[in-house]
Amino acid sequence: MKPHKHPEHTDNIWLALEIGNSRLHWALFVGETLYSAWDTDHLPESVIQQLAECQTLNDLLEKIFPQGESLTNTLPLCPLFIASVVPSQTAIWQIYPNTHVITLNQLPLTGVYPTLGIDRALALWGAGKTWGFPMLVIDAGTALTFTAADANEFLVGGAILPGLGLQFATLGQQTGQLPLVEMQNFPSLPPRFALNTTEAIQSGVIYTILAGIKDFVEAWLQLFPNGKIAIKGGDRTLLLNYLQVLHPEIADSLIVEPNLIFWGMREIVMGDSTDGKQ
To answer: Catalytic residues per the record (predicted)?
Structure first.
């Protein structure tokens, strides 16, 4: 994402970090405005220690921002707000000064259960507060998840299954004779009834995932005919392209937004900031 504008109010600058199963997802905010968002690989503890020793925000961004973002060297290190689904990484990142780990009990969402992933909860909260409840969020990431809340911002529930890449990897690694099908953007849907093993794996994984999405969307709309549906995650574009071919009415109804978790984090961070001024 391209920078929105050059940050000027240093007291309103804050970093958001979503620690996912596969990657780190970053966002730089100026107040409520998303200035830039980007991804990096997980970082070793030695690199995180170096980041913790940075003296300015510019020093920090030079190490983690892929396009070599440059800000005024006088900007101090800003607060870092973390949402993590990887406990071992969460612990390491707390060596960074001014770190705030967002937890479930900070979300106004009601009816949550203790083991609900903070990533699912924040994405749902961000989507609902942006586009309104009832809201169903589909996260097409390492895991494919469905998470929903009703018009009263009460958790309806959801589901979790292995995502596209994980399903391909599992078949390749846990079976004796099936090949490892690399996760990639297949240009078109495979034949449903395949005549070779690789395409048979593609068919089995892709068509059942699409059927599952269709089933959950239809069940959701039966419960909440006016409910909204948002999709995020690294496989969102690929799945949307497939849905557009098989079920265009579903594809056209989806709100596509990769930054849902950051919208949820913004609600928490700016809400706390407002509360602190009262």
So the answer is: 119 (proton acceptor)
Q: Where in the chain is the domain with CATH 3.30.420.40?
A: 13-101, 110-262
Cα–Cα distance measured from residue 228 to residue 247, given in angstroms and rounded to the nearest whole number: 17
- Pairing outcome for strands 80-84 and 99-101: parallel
**CATH 3.30.420.40, domain 110-262, yes or no:** yes
What b/e sequence results for 42-81 when a residue is b if at least 16 CB atoms lie within 10 Å of its CB, and e otherwise?
bbeeeebeebbebebbbbbbeebbeeebebeeebebbebb
Binding residues for K(+): 139
Are 173 and 148 spatial neighbours (Cβ–Cβ below 8 Å)?
no
In whole angstroms, what separates CA 43 from the centre of its chain? Answer: 18
Spatial CA neighbour of 137 closest among 219, 47, 217: 217
The one catalytic residue in 11, 41, 119, 252 is 119
Q: Is 119 a catalytic residue?
A: yes
In CATH, the number for domain 13-101 is 3.30.420.40
Per-residue pLDDT of the chain (278 residues; tens, 9 = 90+): 334 444 444 558 899 999 988 889 999 999 999 988 999 999 888 888 888 888 888 888 888 876 655 555 567 778 999 999 988 888 888 888 889 999 999 999 999 999 999 999 999 999 999 999 999 999 999 899 999 999 999 999 999 999 988 888 888 676 655 666 665 656 688 899 999 988 888 899 999 999 999 999 999 999 999 999 999 998 999 999 999 999 999 999 999 999 999 999 999 999 865 554 43
